[in-house]
Amino acid sequence: MDFTNYNNILEKLHETLTPQRYEHSLGVAEEAVVLAERFGIDKNKACIAGLLHDCAKCLPNEKLLDIVVKNKDIWEIDECELLNYKTFHAPAGVVIAEKEYGITDKEILSAIRWHTLGKKKMSSLEKIIYLADKIEKRTRPSEYREQIEKFLNEENGLDRAILESYKLTIKSLADRNLVICFPTIDIYNNLLSEFF
Question: What's the fold here for domain 3-195?
């Protein structure tokens, strides 16, 4: 790992994120490294993607939407993503990671892009960042984490844990009367068909 770049990333994130979001980003990076070691993925890429996954999170919603709309031809944007401001930061984060942090690695950028909604046939790094975002230990409630982590010990543990995460996410969205994107349901059904 280029520790100069790593320290620069930490410094800039510290300046641009709220203290809680910065703490969460550190937690995701830590969890991503643990998962990367466990599942044989590049730890450095996992660490950087984990740190930067929310690099755009604290920007105003209007600015995020503007970035997404101006760059929608670069990364797939589902219309449903534009209905919920909470999802803007993932595609906008790719642009910020490239332009402001100098990240050019396509695997890292893709992991940042898909960490919120996920997608069918995620790469191992994408899966790790998606999952690390849900189960990091610094800011996520232990009862939620534990519901997901127990599946990591099963056969195809990474996918089983992700399936459980989707179940909990869909239930939470439904309980709060929030829009559930069609891709989320599609991914859930696809994962479900692999195991049942």
Answer: Hypothetical protein af1432 (1.10.3210)
